[in-house]
Amino acid sequence: MKVGTDGVLLGAWAAVRPQDRRMLDIGTGTGLIALMLAQRAPEAHVTGVDIDDVGQARENAAASPWSGRVAFAQCPVQEFETPEPFDLIVSNPPFFVDSLTCPDRGRTAARHAVHLPFGDLRDAVLRLLAPGGRFAVILPTAEAERFLAVCAGRLALVRRTDVRTTPRRPAKRALMEFVRADRPADRSTDCSAAAPEVSELVVGTGEHECYTPEYRALTRDFYLKF
């Protein structure tokens, strides 16, 4: 799986706070999102982890200006260990649950929740996320509702953006940001007890290769054509 709109959306949308110094990209693939985070956070160290070979991600990082702050590990996230928790975790995970798998095993691993069921992803985030950290994920809308059900009582949704490809089409993707449901209350900064912030993003105008101003504004730092 190469560069896709889902990864670009997540890498650009995930909230990067000034205090975030350690970041994790689960299911890093080619390292796209990890490199986007490194570009956005000049003082952060970013780790990408993937069950498949991370050689291409390492090559991409080596060819980038951020190679000194990005590292990759080939390891199932269920087994991934770290000496310190992460301030920000992101994931563009495999998501198909009940659909037929593809004969191509690599494509199946990238698109179907076979090796990373939603419950395992939730548990990995809870194990690796710092007490005040955030977790951002992108999923198709139907799978987003499944993931919300899996996270109930464990991870609290604080922000969601539903993504339409064009104004006339229904939302196809959901960008979601979570905090720990059990994080200590801080009335000055905590929003986990409040209703989540909900918004919508339309990618294209409906004409070929024409993008909305909102999508251009979100992603222009990562597209040469913008």
Automatic annotation (TrEMBL):
Family: Belongs to the methyltransferase superfamily. tRNA (adenine-N(6)-)-methyltransferase family.
Record-listed E.C. numbers: 2.1.1.223
Protein name (Swiss-Prot/TrEMBL): tRNA1(Val) (adenine(37)-N6)-methyltransferase
A GO CC term assigned to this protein in UniProt: cytoplasm
Keywords associated with the record: Cytoplasm, Methyltransferase, S-adenosyl-L-methionine, Transferase, tRNA processing
Purpose: Specifically methylates the adenine in position 37 of tRNA(1)(Val) (anticodon cmo5UAC).
Catalytic activity as recorded in UniProt: adenosine(37) in tRNA1(Val) + S-adenosyl-L-methionine = N(6)-methyladenosine(37) in tRNA1(Val) + S-adenosyl-L-homocysteine + H(+)
Source taxon at top rank: Bacteria
Main EC class the enzyme belongs to: transferase
GO biological process: methylation; tRNA processing
CDD domains noted in UniProt: AdoMet_MTases
Record-linked Pfam families: Methyltransf_31 (PF13847)
Record's keyword annotation contains Lipoprotein: no
GO molecular function, one term: nucleic acid binding
Location(s) in or outside the cell: Cytoplasm
Cited SUPFAM superfamilies: S-adenosyl-L-methionine-dependent methyltransferases
PANTHER family: TRNA1(VAL) (ADENINE(37)-N6)-METHYLTRANSFERASE
InterPro entries cross-referenced by the UniProt entry: DNA_methylase_N6_adenine_CS, Methyltranfer_dom, SAM-dependent_MTases_sf, tRNA_Adenine-N(6)_MTase, tRNA_adenine-N6_MeTrfase
